[in-house]
Every structure is written in structure tokens, then in C-alpha cells.
């Protein structure tokens, strides 16, 4: 009898704790996301909110470079789902140099680049996660602000910097200012390299990369942050939006509609393309999720069948041009 009473009261204690302990949020596709053919998995999880809203890059050897804010380490993972921090194949410690030392990252020209947010130096990452400054940029007074993205056509970086929205040639160590008055978050680039989509003032905006002109402003009502553009498939040209309110949305920039495709997450922030397979990493406080749009399309990278530029010589430029011409012939481009 005594043993039974002890077991009974232990059960009551566990049940009571379950009633007062909030359940962990779980980012999940809703009916709209499922019917549209998206799939959602966990790339790295189990952070208990210690991971933070960080970005990812795809190293030349195919591994994924990312970070963890509270223990200030850059991690290297194999590109498979269902991992934890303990799964990392390597790590490199770093020192906070800004008030927000989350690393923004971008894969450009087959290399990984990044910078600590709000004032960090632009860095080039090696396969093992170690990093060195991109030459000339710091001397020229160029520092990071928030988001950045690799242009899938020419291998440049489109970044939000202390000088405004800029285009960086990371090989030459040079840059040009696209729009000196724009200091956005959530930067991404269209598959044809002509449009930058950014979060600015709680809206999603599109800008002409060549001229810096504002094209459109979209009010989604869901605290947008990171963005990634779909290429190929039935949603070609649409924009995935990772929201601070724990939702993920699909923006059609032609007609301006915004549809929630996933709910139940924590604080969504950076997104990064996985150029190995055309999926999109979605940062949450407690995990990095992976969103796929299915066969025949990719999110955040070049059009299907067109490789990310690995060199910046004449051959690389020619291949990019041929890929773009082929895409125009087969799928057409949205205005």
C-alpha cells in the first residue's frame, strides 16, 4: 500500500508540473503549406532557445557553416536533418565585437561570407569554420548592418551595411552603394540577380539592384524578417518570409497576396539557402528548420539546373548568362 501511495503522489506531481510548464513551440506546416507541396523538417534542433536567430552558409566541401550566439562558436555540420549541437563535425570560438554578435552569412560564388550584426567586419569562412577578413573592406570603412545574400548570377554579396544597401565583390574586395538611405534586414536576391527583397519598417520591400529604386512595398501583418525567393515550379518568383511571430508566409509579389504556410514556431529570423539541394534554412530560437518546395524548384538559389558561380572569370560569367537565357526560354520571368 505504501509503495502504491508513493507512486500515486509521484504521478500527481508530474501531472501538475505538466499543467504549469508551457509546451515547446513547434513550427509546422498548415493545410495551405501542405496542399502547396511544401515540406518542413528540422536540420538542427534541441537548443532550448540558446541558439538564437543565426544564418547558415554552404562551404566548398558541402558542409553547413553556422553559429551559436550564447557560447560564441561557429559550427560545421554535415548537411543532414535531425541533428543537435553535439552532431557538429567541428567548431571555432569567436569573440563578440559588436552589440549584436549574431553572424549574418551568405554563400556567394561557392564560398561562405559573414559578419557580426550591427557593425561587424565582413569575413570569409574556410571549410573548418575559421574566418579571415575580406581584404580592403574594413579599410574602406564598410561594416555590416544586418542581412546579406549571395547574388546567384555573379557571386557578389548584396548586404545591408553601415553605408546603406551595397553590392560587394568579395574576391576583388570592392563594393558599390546600391541605395545609401536603405538599412534593412532580411536581405535576399531574386534568381535572376535583378531584385533585392528586404524587410524594412515591418514590411517586405523590393528594390532594383542596378538602380537602387524602390519597386514595391508589401504589408503582410506578420512581423516579417528573413526572405528567400523561389525559382522554378508553380510558385516561381514568390517569396518565402520567416516571421518574428512564429509563422512562415508565402508572398506573391506580382498580385501582392500573402499566405501563411506554417505556424507554431518561436521567433523566426534569418533564412539561408541550401545550395546543395535547393531547400531553405529557417532560423528559430530553438532550431534551424528546413523548408522544401519539392521537385523542379529551389528556394533562394539560382534557377534549377543552373549552378552557383564558383569562379568570376569569363567562363563563369558565360555559364551564368547561358543559364539565364535558357530559363527565359523555358519558364519565363515575372516582371
Brief characterization of the structure:
The protein is mainly beta and 335 residues long.
Query: Low-confidence segments, ≥5 residues, pLDDT <50?
Result: 1-23, 311-335
Which CATH architecture? 6 Propeller
Count the E strands.
Answer: 26
CATH class: Mainly Beta
What is the CA-atom radius of gyration, in angstroms? 21 Å
Total separate domains: 1
**CATH topology-level name:** Neuraminidase
The secondary-structure class comes to: mainly beta
Q: List the total number of helices.
A: 3
Distance between the termini: 77 Å
* Proportion of beta-strand residues: 35-45%
> What portion of residues is helical?
10-25%
Cross-sheet strand order for the largest sheet: 1-22-21-20-19-26
CATH fourth-tier homologous superfamily = TolB, C-terminal domain
Mean pLDDT: 85
In N-to-C order, the SSE pattern is HEHEEEEEEEEEEEEEEEEEEEEEEEEEH
- The coarse overall form would be globular
How can the largest sheet be summarized?
A: 6 strands, antiparallel
Which key features would you list for this structure?
single chain; 335 residues; mainly beta; Neuraminidase; six-stranded antiparallel beta sheet; four-stranded antiparallel beta sheet; 26 strands; globular; disordered N terminus; disordered C terminus
Amino acid at each position: 500500500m505504501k509503495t502504491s501511495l508513493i507512486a500515486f503522489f509521484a504521478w500527481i506531481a508530474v501531472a501538475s508540473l505538466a499543467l504549469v510548464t508551457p509546451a515547446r513551440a513547434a513550427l509546422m506546416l498548415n493545410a495551405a503549406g501542405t496542399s502547396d507541396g511544401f515540406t518542413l523538417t528540422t536540420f538542427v534542433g534541441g537548443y532550448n532557445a540558446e541558439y538564437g536567430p543565426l544564418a547558415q552558409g554552404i562551404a566548398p566541401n558541402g558542409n553547413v557553416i553556422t553559429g551559436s550566439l550564447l557560447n560564441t562558436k561557429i559550427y560545421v555540420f554535415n548537411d543532414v536533418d535531425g541533428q543537435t549541437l553535439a552532431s557538429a563535425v567541428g567548431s571555432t570560438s569567436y569573440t563578440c565585437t559588436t552589440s549584436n554578435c549574431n553572424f549574418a552569412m551568405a554563400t556567394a560564388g561557392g564560398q561562405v561570407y559573414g559578419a557580426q550584426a550591427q557593425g561587424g567586419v565582413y569575413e570569409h569562412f574556410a571549410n573548418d569554420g575559421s574566418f579571415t577578413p575580406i581584404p580592403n573592406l574594413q579599410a574602406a570603412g564598410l561594416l555590416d548592418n544586418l542581412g546579406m545574400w549571395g547574388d546567384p548570377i555573379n557571386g557578389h554579396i548584396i548586404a545591408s551595411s553601415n553605408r546603406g544597401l551595397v553590392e560587394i565583390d568579395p574576391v576583388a574586395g570592392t563594393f558599390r552603394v546600391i541605395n545609401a538611405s536603405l538599412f534593412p534586414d532580411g536581405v535576399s536576391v531574386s534568381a535572376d540577380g535583378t531584385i533585392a527583397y528586404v524587410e524594412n519598417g515591418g514590411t517586405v520591400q523590393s528594390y532594383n539592384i542596378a538602380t537602387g529604386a524602390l519597386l514595391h512595398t508589401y504589408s503582410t501583418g506578420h512581423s516579417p524578417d528573413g526572405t528567400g525567393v523561389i525559382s522554378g515550379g508553380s510558385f516561381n518568383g514568390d517569396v518565402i518570409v520567416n516571421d518574428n511571430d512564429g509563422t512562415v508566409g508565402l508572398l506573391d509579389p506580382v498580385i501582392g497576396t500573402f499566405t501563411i504556410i506554417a505556424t507554431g514556431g518561436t521567433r523566426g529570423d534569418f533564412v539561408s539557402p541550401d545550395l546543395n539541394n535547393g531547400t531553405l534554412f529557417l532560423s528559430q530560437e530553438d532550431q534551424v528548420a528546413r523548408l522544401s518546395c519539392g521537385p523542379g524548384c529551389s528556394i533562394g538559389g539560382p534557377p534549377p539546373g543552373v549552378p552557383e558561380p564558383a569562379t568570376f572569370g569569363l567562363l563563369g560569367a558565360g555559364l551564368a548568362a547561358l543559364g539565364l537565357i535558357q530559363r527565359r526560354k523555358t519558364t519565363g520571368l515575372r516582371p
